[in-house]
């Protein structure tokens, strides 16, 4: 939609080290923005770690396995380190949103106006592997949904949100994933 600038090479980076995660994350988000800006792709998935993440985040003072921290009891003070992890992840979410908002296409719309960004998790509470009350964030103008509000869908599976996203982009599916965990698209998005 807009100009397609050549990226600067990042230089040498020990990308597999835990300490490099902030720099790697920024590079991934910058490449995502550039790929959208150059219309090289329409879909990107960024995953900070898998569900069995046994890596630390030393740049946040988390030197042990993040996965193990998610299993601490609700009253265990060690669990508070998840606040730092979640804050960092939300900062990355804000970074990509600001980047998408900063690029204007020839029609005067931003990339954010034409994108749907989904932030989610695979569980709501790792210590009990709960899927109840899972928070998800959606941003952007694609899909035609009303943003800037809090919506609670009591007792709904998160697969219902995923099939709703698929339908917002032209899909006609009634389920996503295991049909036992998807009753259909959500209404009122």
What does the model show?
With 189 residues, this protein is mainly alpha-helical. Helices cover 29% and strands 3% of the residues. The protein has 4 helices and 2 strands; from the N terminus they run H-H-H-E-E-H. Strands 1-2 form a two-stranded antiparallel sheet. Helix 1 (21-37) packs parallel to helix 3 (81-102). It is flat. The model has no long low-confidence stretch (mean pLDDT 90).
Strand content: under 5%
User: How many distinct helices?
Assistant: 4
| Global outline | flat
Helix content: 25-40%
Oligomeric organization of the protein chains: single chain
What is the CA–CA distance across the termini? 27 Å
Structural class: mainly alpha
What low-confidence regions span 5 or more consecutive residues with pLDDT below 50?
none
Encode the helix/strand succession as letters. Answer: HHHEEH
| Major β-sheet annotation | 2 strands, antiparallel
What's the pLDDT, averaged over the residues?
A: 90
Question: What keywords describe this structure?
Answer:
189 residues, mainly alpha, two-stranded antiparallel sheet, 4 helices, 2 strands
How would you summarize the topology of this molecule?
Blueprint lengths: L20 H17 L28 H5 L10 H22 L14 E3 L17 E3 L18 H11 L21
Antiparallel strand pairs: 1-2
In a few lines, what is going on in this structure?
By secondary structure, this protein is mainly alpha-helical. 29% of the residues lie in helices and 3% in strands.
């Amino acid at each position: 939609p807009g100009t397609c600038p050549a990226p600067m090479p990042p230089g040498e980076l020990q990308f597999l080290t835990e300490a490099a995660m902030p720099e790697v994350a920024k590079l991934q988000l910058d490449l995502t923005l550039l790929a959208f800006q150059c219309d090289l792709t329409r879909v990107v998935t960024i995953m900070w770690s898998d569900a069995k993440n046994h890596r630390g985040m030393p740049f946040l003072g988390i030197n042990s396995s993040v996965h193990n921290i998610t299993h601490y009891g609700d009253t265990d003070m060690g669990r508070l380190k998840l606040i730092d992890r979640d804050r960092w992840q939300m900062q990355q979410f804000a970074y990509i949103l600001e980047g998408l908002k900063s690029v204007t296409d020839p029609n005067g719309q931003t990339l954010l106006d034409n994108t749907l960004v989904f932030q989610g998790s695979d569980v709501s509470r790792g210590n009990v592997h709960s899927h109840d009350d899972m928070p998800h964030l959606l941003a952007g103008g694609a899909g035609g949904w009303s943003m800037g509000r809090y919506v609670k869908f009591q007792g709904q599976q998160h697969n219902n949100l995923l099939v709703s996203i698929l339908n917002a982009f032209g899909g006609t599916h009634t389920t996503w994933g295991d049909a036992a965990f998807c009753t259909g698209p959500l209404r009122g998005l």
